Amino acid sequence: MRKAGNVMDLQDRNLELLLEIIRNHDDVSRQDLAEKSGLSPAGVSKLVSLLISKGIVYEDALVSRRKGRRAIRLRINRDAMYAVGVRFARQYVKCGLFNVKGELFHPSYEPLQNFTVKQTLDLMVDMVTETLRECGEMRERVVGIGISAPGPLLAREGKIALISNSPGWRNICLTKAIEEQLGIPTFLEHDANASVLAEKWFGKGTASNCLVFITVGQGVGAGILINGSIFSGNLNVAGEIGHTTIDYNGPLCDCGNRGCLEMYSSSLALVRRAQELARDKQPPGWPKAEELSPEKVFALARNGDTAAQELIRRAGRFMGIGVVNVINTYNPDMIILGDEMAEAGEPWLQAIKEVVDQRVIPELQKETIIELSELAIEPAFLGAGALVIKRAFGTLSRLPNNAVTSVKNA
Ligand SMILES: [Zn+2]
């Protein structure tokens, strides 16, 4: 039994590898696949037949090859399966249907105010139900629901461990309630992990082998993707860089630690600092302290307000320290920054890069590309769908032919 399982696992890994290549290249033949994957031509042929029989890949027109040889082009069936993606942020929920190529259908958005656990769960169920209703025939090919949420969370158990600054959000199981009500396999993933997957599949990180995505919103977290796999640690809590100490005497954080990175570099920290400034000095042209938001600070900065510009640079310098720690810990070839603070744009990124230039050993400085995310769909939303598709890709050999259905217990 065990042996059979291992053979199956190996086949699934090879199928996933081939799908990755076909998904990334629009014009690929069986011969190209053998060259790019390192698998034997006979092995590739067998696996491609399996992918075709399951309706995931199809043969397209003949393409001309080197030396006048012609080969059959393989294409991924973008509508072979769908995933419902749910982005649960602190202020809103987004829901929609994604296909294999990350195209979004029937998107919806609902704001969250004083989000209680029950209110949030009910809202998610309603939104997913509505998406499934709207998607009509596509419903048959929905392989799962993916939820991206702020951490720390225990993905395997579908449980949110803690959302800082949010009373009631401790040790909350999200997936079970949704699965029970809707009867569809449901997966929870850290928003940073979902984001790094979205960048690897559809964004700037397609060529990266060691990619880190840092979400800098109300919290700060990192998703780490090494050779195509998310590095999740023992309990899937790896990448919680927001709770690494940058001042060991600093203020107490909800996590129990002191002087955590996110207390200085998050959008909450930015607003807190801006509010202090507004109360102390009320700079000309500023709204009242309680009306300040990250967007308002960014707008002030864009309009030339030097106090707002300095607040953004200051938050960027603190974030730079976090980025230095990430570089020293994981040695990534690329770091992509996203979420709320990334809306501050180039001045924020420059402040981060200045700190990196000052503090990272010179040999590493030029070896890590640091950029802002530019995906058209919010990466934590897109990644919520992609993680379900990735999971389905990883268990393909166990699925019946031409009938891609639920993958949870495959
Ligand atoms: Zn903390």
Counting helices, strands and paired strands, the structural category is alpha/beta
The number of helices is 13
Assigned CATH architecture of the largest domain: 2-Layer Sandwich
Helical proportion, percent range: 40-55%
Number of domains: 3
- What distance lies between the first and last C-alpha atoms, to the nearest angstrom? 15 Å
Mean pLDDT: 90
Task: Walk me through the structure.
- The structure is a single chain.
- By secondary structure, this protein is of the alpha/beta class.
- It has three domains: 2-76, Arc Repressor Mutant, subunit A (Orthogonal Bundle), CATH 1.10.10; 82-196 and 378-398, 2-Layer Sandwich (Nucleotidyltransferase, domain 5), CATH 3.30.420.40; 206-372, Nucleotidyltransferase, domain 5, CATH 3.30.420.40.
- The chain contains 13 helices and 15 strands.
- It has a five-stranded mixed beta sheet, sandwiched between helices. Strands 13-12-11-14-15 form a five-stranded mixed beta sheet, sandwiched between helices. It has a three-stranded antiparallel beta sheet with strand order 7-8-9.
- The longest helix is centred in the C-terminal third of the chain and has 25 residues, at 306-330.
- The site of zinc ion (ZN) has 5 residues, from loops.
